[in-house]
Specification:
By secondary structure, the protein is of the alpha/beta class. 41% of the residues lie in helices and 29% in strands. The protein is built from 5 helices and 7 strands; from the N terminus they run αβββαβαβββαα. It has helices spanning 2-19, 89-117, 136-160, 192-208, 216-221; strands spanning 22-32, 35-44, 49-59, 121-133, 162-163, 168-173, 178-191. Strands 1, 2, 3, 4, 5, 6 and 7 form a 7-stranded mixed β-sheet that branches. Helix 2 packs antiparallel against helix 4. The termini are far apart. Mean pLDDT is 79; it is low at 64-84 and 225-230.
Length: 230
């Protein structure tokens, strides 16, 4: 009996230790001309536990062609089929009800994710870019637009994440060469318990929060056969 109590006590202690453990994520992204590099390192317990993910440099061949996906349609006697559908008042009301249900579903999901992101602390954030078009006027206009775009993105990030430092970001124009280089380096920190709790909430949300559509087309997409028999 003592051994069982001791084992349970150890398991509870390990579980509590895991819940309050902080995970630090070092994320780096670099793009130099057409080369990309992604490096991510996760550490815990002051580096005692660590995991590194490194995506090697990806270089696109200029002579390569884009992947083209063609969709074939079967027609009868090479003629197109035309179908007409009538929208009844009942179907119209069902569509409005489905749209309302879908909006509530998305809002609830957004609330769960935003609550977790608010617990994520940003310890470091640096985003530096260099752009050029070989033309001074075009480069100047592009630089101004990029400043506005980058400021909007960082403003959006600060509303979701808990920044502990002021974000550092710059855009350097190059009036003599054509280039688009950028580098992002950030350090994020969160507790394992917060990630586990968010995962449980998402799992319960998707299992018990399935949207029940009234319209037949959306009911087919979600696999709800109850509407088919109505």
């Amino acid at each position: 009996m003592k051994w069982i109590v001791m084992i349970l006590a150890i398991l509870i202690a390990v579980l509590l230790l895991l819940i309050f453990t902080k995970v630090r994520v070092h994320f780096t992204y670099k793009r130099i001309q057409k080369d990309d590099l992604i490096h991510m390192k996760m550490t815990a317990w002051h580096g005692l536990l660590h995991y590194t993910l490194k995506v090697p440099v990806i270089k696109k061949d200029d002579e390569s062609t884009a992947l083209i996906v063609e969709k074939e349609t079967d027609t009868m006697n090479d003629t197109e089929k035309k179908s007409t559908a009538k929208l009844t008042p009942e179907e119209f009301m069902n569509g409005l009800s489905d749209m309302r249900a879908l909006i509530h579903h998305i809002v609830d999901l957004h609330r769960i994710i935003r609550h977790f992101l608010g617990k994520v602390q940003v310890k470091e954030f640096a985003w530096h870019s260099m752009i050029g078009t070989k033309h001074a006027a075009q480069t100047g206009i592009l630089t101004g637009n990029c400043w506005a775009l980058k400021g909007s993105i960082i403003g959006l990030l600060t509303t979701y994440l808990n920044f502990r430092v002021m974000p550092s970001y710059t855009i350097t124009p190059d009036f003599y060469r054509k280039q688009a280089n950028t580098s992002i380096a950030c350090i994020l920190e969160f507790r394992v318990g917060q990630a586990i709790l968010t995962g449980i909430k998402l799992l319960r949300y998707w299992k018990g929060g399935k949207v029940k559509f009234k319209s037949k087309k959306l009911a087919k997409l979600t696999g709800d056969s109850n509407n088919q028999s109505m």
